[in-house]
Every structure is written in structure tokens, then in C-alpha cells.
Amino acid sequence: MTKRRILVLAPHTDDGEFGCGGTICRLVAEGDLITYVAFSAAENSLPEAWPPDTLREEVKDATKVLGIHTQDVRLFDYPTRDFPQFRQQILEEMILMKKEIKPDLVLLPSTNDTHQDHQIVSQEGFRAFKTTSMLGYELPWNNLTFRTNFFVCLEDHHINKKIEALHCYRSQQERPYASAEFVKSLAVTRGTQIGVKYAEVFESIRWVLKADTRIDLPC
After folding, report:
1. CATH of the domain at 97
2. H or E element at residue 184
3. Is residue 215 part of a domain?
4. Residue 214 falls inside a structural domain
5. Are 199 and 152 in contact (CB under 8 A)?
6. Residue 101 domain flag
7. Domain count within the chain
8. What is the per-residue pLDDT across 127-159, written as a single tens digit (0 to 9) for each?
9. Would residue 218 count as lying in a domain?
């Protein structure tokens, strides 16, 4: 079976784990090749007394828990909340990724994410990868609205790995949505919508079935 190339675009370290950590874990287990790209380590958003490289180290630990190889984790240095000033540069970085990685699927923030950095990654991600299948992941605290039209069924060990990965972000544990209770309850809610125990949901931004693409059902 051909391994699919999956590209995860995270505006900041931890966004990918929050939005699609369970799905990443499942894709890794199915043999797919995951490249995780974070555009900012959010140094200026760290709580006081934490070293500036904290999130850089935490994302390495978190993605390792999900099964992503260290060499497949890439970090950029764009300043948090200033992505609109670097729109063209971010687009050019993505175009290079498209040429190098040739992803079969891109996971990125929803088109209705209200955070300015997330909006840029979503909008420029669409421009760069418009010929590729794209799914927008859910971050409920940022989403003005969300189209729940693509579900990925998950099992206990996928959710447990997602929670373990998020616990690697020790500097972010004060956030209410970082709790195991929230992560599991959201997965239960999305699972209930489709009659399974757990699920993650995505906005289907674009779905492309090319001539050589296998057709898989999410469950």
C-alpha cells in the first residue's frame, strides 16, 4: 500500500495537536508520512519565568508522542499575532513545501478561525495547496462557526496519545482547553454525532480524488 504524505500546518506550536492530534496518531499508525510545520514558537506568549525556547522543546516532545519523526518537524520564527505582516513570505514558504513534500493531504486551521495568525495560515494555505485535498481542523475557542462535514473515527488509544502529547506542553497547562477532560469530552461530542465513541471533526475545504488516489472512508 502506498504511503500517503500528510502535511500538518500549525500557526503556533501546539495548534496541530489541539486540532488534530488524534487523527495524526491514527494516520501514523496506518503508515502515512507526516510532516509537521509550526510557523511560530510563540516566545512572546510564554508565561513569565519560562525560558524562550520552551515551546520549541515541548513541540519536539509532543510530536514524538504522536509518532512523528524529529526530522519531520519544522519550526519557523514568525512573531505571534503579526502574521499578516508576513503574508507573502509565509505563502512562499508553503509553495516551497508543496514542491518538496508533494502532500496528498494538508491539515490546517479552519477558514472560520478568528485568530489573525490562523487566518493567514488558512488563507495562504489554500492558495498554496489549492490542487490538494485540505481539511480544516477544529479549535472551538477560535472558531466563529464550524462546518462539521468530515469526521475521523478514533479509538481510546488515539485520544490517550493526544492527551499525552498535549501534556508535553507544560507551559500551556493553565489553558482550560488543555485539560484531559475537555479533550475527551470534545471527542465524545463529535463521536456522538456519528454514532461512535470518539471522533475528531474537520471542515472539508477541498477534497481531490486524483487518478491514483485510493478512496478511503474516514472510519
Report:
1. 3.40.50.10320
2. helix 180-194
3. no
4. no
5. yes
6. yes
7. 1
8. 999 999 999 999 999 999 999 999 999 999 999
9. no
Q: Is 31 left (phi over 0), alpha (psi -120 to 50) or beta?
A: left
**Cα dihedral 187, 193, 194, 197 in deg (nearest 10):** 40
Structural domain range at position 199: 5-206
Burial of 35: CB neighbours in 10 Å, binned 0-12, 13-18, 19+: buried
- Give 95-101's long-range contacts (Cβ < 8 A, gap of 24+): 95/128, 97/7, 97/35, 97/37, 97/128, 98/128, 98/129, 98/132, 101/5, 101/7, 101/35
5 beta partners: 33
Q: Residue 145, SS3?
A: coil
Percent of the chain surpassing pLDDT 70: 96
Which residue in 214, 186, 218, 23 sits closest to 104, CA to CA? 214
pLDDT in tens, 192-218: 999 999 999 999 999 998 876 665 655
